[in-house]
Amino acid sequence: MEDTIVAISTNNIGIGAINIIRMSGKESLNILSEVFSNQKIKNCKSHTIHYGFIIDNNEKIDEVLVSILKAPKTYTKEDIVEINCHGGYAVTNKILELLISKGARLAQPGEFTKRAYLNGRINLLEAESIEDLLESQTENQSALAMNHLTGKTTKLISSLREKLVKLLSNIEVNIDYPEYQDELQITKNNIEPILTEIKKELEVIITESKNGELIKNGIKIAIIGKPNVGKSSLLNALLEREKAIVTNISGTTRDTVEANLIHKGILLNLIDTAGIRKTDDIIEQIGVKKSKQLMQEADIIILVLDNSQKINSEEQKLLNTIEQKNSIIFVNKIDLPPQLELNTKIPIIYGSAFQNKGIEQLKDQIITNFNLDNLNAKDLTYLSNTRQIALAKEALTNINNVIKANQQNIPIDMLTIELKIAWENLGKIIGEYYEEELVDNIFKRFCLGK
Hints:
Elements: E1 5-8, E2 18-24, H1 28-35, E3 48-56, E4 59-69, E5 80-86, H2 89-101, E6 105-106, H3 111-118, H4 124-135, H5 139-149, H6 152-176, H7 188-217, E7 219-224, H8 231-239, E8 257-263, E9 266-272, H9 282-297, E10 300-306, H10 313-322, E11 327-332, E12 348-350, H11 359-369, H12 386-407, H13 412-430, H14 435-446
Parallel strand pairs: 1-6, 7-9, 7-10, 10-11, 11-12
Antiparallel strand pairs: 1-2, 2-5, 3-4, 4-5, 8-9
């Protein structure tokens, strides 16, 4: 990280009135002084903004505002320069090329944030949250990302690691310094409640993190049913616009139609599928196969039934299948004479996609099925991606293994191996899992250097 990197920070250059070019590294100020009208710029105070011109061979390229941010109180903990230039491809790229010609290197994707992490400005959890914040489409998504970025979730993980490192430190002191009597003597009996407490906290984190994944990625919803029951009409009604083609011809939808909407701060990813039925049409067969596959992949299934028709054998098979899954039944066409009879524990919403009846109730039921009704955005401290949750589950497995080994009277010193792995797995979530940290904690906590 000895070189100085540069990149255009604004998206969609050429559209906005202003573009920002960011440069980070020890040569940032020197490079700027070569192209800025105020050549004494590198001697200016940190966190100040300066007016001037970008110049190349005595030719003014653009009128700009330049922000000077000196290390270490910057995003990357390096010297940073931000040039606010006029929008437009030509002028922005000209300035970028000029800075590169003076010694800067074009930054790789995410390299500014990578430097922030490597320089200790943020941890790995916070680094991942920056991308989540930039891509957030709902208030809940941005709140979740901000809680990661501001350290709320980090404190949750760090608290568990502190409990583990204290336990490990106690065990190692008991083994290596038996004459040191001031600390708790770890035994088979008193280690059990400590491990049980850590286990319960991890289980809560993992359980609640399922909500984190749903908030971040949205709920994947497969709308299924036989042909001509109103699946496409339901999709359009949910979206409040004409997304899918609707006709009275069975089998109109032969491939999936996807769209999304936001309801109560949750992203709903809707998939209208091909009608499920037996057919000799090869193309329709492919659509039916795809529909059945999506039933397995979806977070929740909405089975659409026609109120004016009795259930046929194909629909009964679908009903039996979704009873074992997270699902909702939407009984469509309630304006027609009823013929449908249902006996199921699956939540049922009665309505009419054509008349826009039952649509809001259906949206609410989706949220209810995931127990997301009373989300408080300020308290969203869940883990939110597969990597984080997988590491938390590994740590839980480690703790369960230690509890089992302890109950089998395995010597206490042998338990430290699995405890260290649990501690390291939690550390990997936030990017901190160095052996030196454990050593430092032993001496820091117990003053053993006497």
